[in-house]
TrEMBL record:
Keyword Transport included in the entry's annotation: no
InterPro entries: Dual-sp_phosphatase_cat-dom (IPR000340), DUSP12 (IPR016278), Prot-tyrosine_phosphatase-like (IPR029021), Tyr_Pase_AS (IPR016130), Tyr_Pase_dom (IPR000387), TYR_PHOSPHATASE_DUAL_dom (IPR020422)
Keyword Cytoplasm: no
Record EC number: 3.1.3.48
Domain of life from the UniProt record: Eukaryota
Organism from which the protein derives: Clathrospora elynae
Protein name listed in UniProt: protein-tyrosine-phosphatase
Pfam families: DSPc
Length: 327
């Protein structure tokens, strides 16, 4: 292994562990001007003179949020390279945290996916291997198209929300009211496939864009494929979905589980369980936010605009003029 590992290519970008900082002669030969430390440990500041130094205090654990730091670390690396010097990114061992940060930079710089960027980094340092949690964050970063501001991205906000749910679940508690993400307050899309309405009063409760898919074990065993759409299987008795604003009064009470009433006619239309709920198809969904198919009608947005009950297939039974009367 070289005294200091340079990421292949035209960039003067290097990766290593803490011991790399003690190779002063090698650092001088590489013309290192910027050092990015990605670890949580007391640091000997003498090691970082005369470099421009940035510290990201994170542990090498799967549930650590390194994703939120990618925009700042990318900017630091880019500024160092633009200044004509070399940039060293290091953690304790030069294996997981530093590799993750370098991969995030390469993804944004060269528009490559995490696996491609990791293979590239391994050409310089074969031991590089981000932990599974960091790899998932890199995949999400790619799906978000490597933005300069991750915190305003709905995908990142959903990811943070899911982390809060998992933490609350581990503690056996409902999430704090200000941590609940009501999806319709963040994402609006009128081009949804169908609406879910209270069967008794026809109150619109949700649209198909807020449904969460889940797999039936029999479907997985037989087909070895995931369900192709968010619509639940016909064998499922529930629609699982994101929290929506009309559920706020109930969900912010801090209860682990409870029931939903239609906001118009107050009919019982569903239930929830923050610790998770098992559908009758056998699949667990966490958190379990559900509407009962027996209390809900689907209003399909077809050219006839016909109300379709759950599980209905085939041609519409009514003419266009009759169908519009239903809606």
């Amino acid at each position: 292994m070289a005294l200091i590992d340079k990421v292949p290519g035209d960039l003067d970008l290097y990766i290593g562990g803490m011991f790399t900082l003690r190779r002063r002669e090698a650092l001088e030969q590489a013309k290192i001007t910027h050092v990015l430390s990605v670890l949580r440990t007391p640091l000997d500041q003498d090691l970082f003179s005369p470099f421009k130094h940035m510290v990201v205090e994170v542990d090498d654990v799967e549930d650590e949020n390194l994703l939120e730091h990618f925009p700042a670390t990318n900017r630091f690396i880019q500024k160092g390279l633009e200044g004509g010097g070399g940039v060293l990114v290091h953690c304790a061992m030069g294996k997981s945290r530093s590799a993750t940060v370098v991969i995030a930079y390469l993804m944004q710089k060269h528009n490559v996916n995490p696996s491609e960027a990791l293979s590239h980094v391994r050409q310089a340092r074969s031991m590089c291997e981000p932990n599974d949690g960091f790899m998932k964050q890199l995949e999400l970063y790619g799906e978000m198209q490597t933005p300069d501001d991750v915190e305003t991205c709905p995908a990142y906000q959903r990811w943070v929300y899911q982390r809060e749910i998992e933490l609350s679940r581990a503690c056996g508690q409902a999430p704090e009211a200000d941590k609940i993400r009501f999806e319709d307050e963040h994402v609006t899309d009128e081009n949804s496939g169908f609406e879910l309405r209270c069967r008794k009063c026809r109150q619109k409760l949700a649209t198909s864009q807020y449904l969460l898919s889940h797999r039936s074990p029999s479907t997985v065993d037989d087909q070895l494929t995931e369900m192709p759409s968010a619509a639940p299987s016909q064998s499922c008795a529930h629609y699982f979905l994101d929290p929506l604003s009309w559920m706020r009064t109930e969900l912010e009470q801090g209860k682990l589980e409870g029931r939903f009433e239609c906001p118009k006619c107050h009919t019982n239309v569903g239930k929830y369980a923050w610790q998770g709920m098992q559908c009758n198809c056998g699949e667990w969904v966490v958190p379990g936010i559900s509407l009962s198919k027996g209390r809900i009608d689907e209003a399909r947005k077809t050219k006839f605009d016909i109300r379709r009950p759950p599980g209905t297939s085939g041609p519409p039974p009514l003419g266009a003029s009759q169908a519009k009367e239903y809606l």
